[in-house]
Write a structure and sequence with these properties.
By secondary structure, the chain is of the alpha+beta class. It has 2 domains: about 5-260, 2-methylcitrate dehydratase PrpD (Orthogonal Bundle), CATH 1.10.4100.10; about 270-390, 2-methylcitrate dehydratase PrpD (60s Ribosomal Protein L30, Chain: A). About 50% of the residues lie in helices and about 10% in strands. The chain has 21 helices and 8 strands. The chain has helices spanning about 5-15, 25-40, 45-55, 75-85, 100-115, 120-140, 145, 150-165, 170-185, 195-215, 235, 245-250, 275-285, 315-320, 325-335, 345, 350-355, 405-415, 420-435, 440-450, 450-455; strands at about 65, 70, 90-95, 260, 295-300, 360-365, 375-380, 385-390. Strands 6-5-7-8 form a 4-stranded mixed beta sheet, with helices on one face. A two-stranded antiparallel sheet has the order 1-2. The longest helix has 22 residues, at about 120-140. The protein starts with a helix and ends with a helix.
C-alpha cells in the first residue's frame, strides 16, 4: 500500500474507533483549552479583522463562529482556526514545533456542523487529524522547519484535511486524494512570526484542509501519492533529504499524537515558558519585585535564538517572541496572562524598566536535551547581593512537565470571560467534558456562539 493511502487508512480507523481510552481525558482537555483560547481570540484585534473578512468574503449560515455569528463551512474553519491561534495561547506538541488543535479542531467543528455529526464522531475525527499532523510533522522535521516553514500552517493543513475528511466519511482512497489537494494548498512562513499573519496560519490550514476534503468528496482529482517519491511533499518540503517514511507509518515515539500535546500556561511563544515558569516560582518564593532586582540572566538553547526575534517589541504580538518582555511581565506581576499581553502594557515605562534588567544568553545543547524540550535556566541577582538560580528543563504544561488541573480551569475562564458570562462558560466546559456522549452538537454550538448568554 502506498504511503499516503496507508496514512489515510490509519486516519479512518482512528476516527471510527475514537481516541484510545487512556488518552480520552487528555483529548477533551485539549479541546476545552482550545475553545477558551479561541473565544478570547474572537474579540482580539486579529479575530475582529478575520471575522470581518469572513463576513464579507465567506458569508453563510452553515458554520458557527465562536463568540457569535455564522459563516460558510470553510469560512467558519478559517475564522475559528485563526481565533484559536490569535494570542499564541493554544496547545503545542511537546516533541515537535506545531500547534495541532487550532487548525484541526476548527476544521472538525465546521465539518461536523455541516454533516450533523454527534460528539463521538467529532472527537474521533479530531484525534485522527492530530495523529496525521503528528506523523507528517515528524517525518519532515527538522529540515522543513529549519528551511523557514511554520508547521502549524503547512502540516496542520493535512491534520485539518483528515479531521474534515473522516467526518465526511471519505473512503481511504478519497481521503488520500484529499491529502493530494492539501499538499498543494499548505503554506506558512516563520518570517511572519510576531505579526497578525502568524495566527492566520492556523486558520488558513483549517480552511484549506476543509476545502480539500470537500473537493475530494465532490470527485475533484489529485494525486493519491502526495507524500512519497522524489517530487512528493516529503522530499520537496524537506530539502535536507531527511524525510522519514517510518514516522508516517508508525506513530513516532511509540505514543499517540494526542498524548504528545502540551498546553500553554502563558500566551506567548512556547520557547519562553520554561524561563517564565522558573522566574514565576522564584518571584513567589523570594518575594521579588523590580526594585529589588539588579539583573536577570536567562539561558536557553542556541536554537531558541531564531524564535526570540523581538528583544525590543513594539506591540503585544512582537512581545510574544520577546524573552525580555515575558520575564519583565512575570517580574512585575508575579505571573503573565492575557492582560499583560497588551500594547499599552508593552509600552509602559515600568515594563521597559523591567525589561532592561533582563539579559539573554544561549548555550548549545542546554541540559543535553533536544531543542523541543524548551528548557531554560534563570539567574536572578538582587540589589542586596543575593543570587537565585532556577531551572525548568521541559516546557511547563507538556506531558513530561504537567501542571495541575486548577491552572487549566483558571486559564479557560480567563479566556472565556470577555465573551461569555460565568454560567455560559461553565456550560461550555461541562458539555466539552461529556462531548463523546453528545448525540447532538447543537447545545455546544449554541453555547459557543453566545446564544445562551444572550437569551
Amino acid at each position: 500500500m502506498g504511503l499516503t493511502l496507508d496514512l489515510a487508512g490509519t486516519a479512518t480507523e482512528i476516527a471510527a474507533g475514537g481516541p484510545p481510552p487512556a488518552t480520552l481525558d487528555r483529548t477533551k482537555l485539549a479541546i476545552r483549552d482550545y475553545l477558551g483560547v479561541a473565544l478570547y481570540g474572537s474579540q482580539h484585534p486579529v479575530g475582529e479583522r478575520i471575522g470581518a473578512f469572513v463576513d464579507a468574503a465567506e458569508p453563510g449560515t452553515a458554520g458557527t463562529l465562536l463568540g457569535g455569528g455564522t459563516a460558510s463551512t470553510t469560512g467558519a474553519a478559517l475564522a475559528n482556526g485563526t481565533f484559536g491561534h490569535a494570542i499564541d495561547y493554544d496547545d503545542t506538541f511537546e516533541s515537535i514545533v506545531l500547534h495541532p488543535t487550532a487548525p484541526t479542531f476548527a476544521a472538525a467543528l465546521a465539518t461536523a456542523e455541516r454533516v450533523d455529526a454527534d460528539g463521538e464522531d467529532l472527537l474521533g475525527s479530531y484525534a485522527a487529524g492530530v495523529e496525521v499532523a503528528y506523523r507528517i510533522a515528524h517525518s519532515v522535521y527538522p529540515g522543513h522547519y529549519d528551511n523557514g516553514w511554520h508547521l502549524t500552517g503547512t502540516v496542520g493543513t493535512f491534520g485539518a484535511t483528515a479531521a474534515a475528511g473522516t467526518l465526511l466519511d471519505l473512503a481511504p482512497g478519497t481521503l488520500a486524494r484529499a491529502f493530494g489537494i492539501a499538499g498543494s494548498c499548505s503554506s506558512s512562513l516563520k518570517k511572519n512570526f510576531g505579526t497578525m499573519t502568524k495566527p492566520l496560519h492556523a486558520g488558513h490550514a483549517a480552511e484549506m484542509g476543509t476545502r480539500a476534503a470537500l473537493l475530494a468528496d465532490s470527485g475533484f482529482g489529485a494525486t493519491d501519492e502526495v507524500l512519497e517519491g522524489p517530487m512528493g511533499y516529503g522530499s520537496v518540503m524537506n530539502p535536507t533529504g531527511t524525510f522519514d517514511e517510518a514516522d508516517v507509518r508508525e506513530s513516532p515515539g511509540g505514543r499517540w499524537g494526542v498524548e504528545d500535546i502540551g498546553l500553554k500556561p502563558y500566551p506567548s511563544g512556547v520557547i519562553t515558558h520554561a524561563a517564565m515558569e522558573a522566574l514565576r516560582r522564584t518571584v513567589s518564593e523570594q518575594d521579588l519585585a523590580p526594585p529589588t532586582v539588579e539583573r536577570i540572566v536567562v539561558t536557553l538553547d542556541e536554537a531558541a535564538s531564531e524564535m526570540l526575534i523581538h528583544a525590543d517589541p513594539a506591540d503585544e504580538l512582537q512581545a510574544k517572541f520577546s524573552i525580555e518582555f515575558c520575564l519583565a511581565a512575570v517580574l512585575r506581576e508575579g505571573d503573565a496572562g492575557v492582560a499583560e499581553f497588551d500594547d499599552e502594557y508593552v509600552a509602559a515605562p515600568e515594563t521597559r524598566e523591567a525589561m532592561s534588567l533582563v539579559e539573554r544568553a544561549f548555550e548549545p545543547g542546554l541540559f543535553g536535551e533536544a531543542f523541543a524540550g524548551y528548557g531554560a535556566r534563570v539567574v536572578v541577582e538582587t540589589v542586596d547581593g543575593e543570587r537565585h538560580v532556577a531551572e525548568e528543563r521541559r516546557a511547563p504544561g507538556s506531558p513530561s512537565n504537567p501542571l495541575p488541573e486548577e491552572r487549566w480551569r483558571a486559564k479557560f475562564h480567563e479566556c472565556a470571560a470577555p465573551v461569555l458570562d460565568r454560567e455560559a462558560a461553565e456550560r461550555v466546559a461541562s458539555l466539552t467534558g461529556d462531548i463523546e456522549r453528545l448525540g447532538d452538537l447543537a447545545p455546544l454550538l449554541a453555547a459557543l456562539g453566545g446564544d445562551e448568554a444572550e437569551g
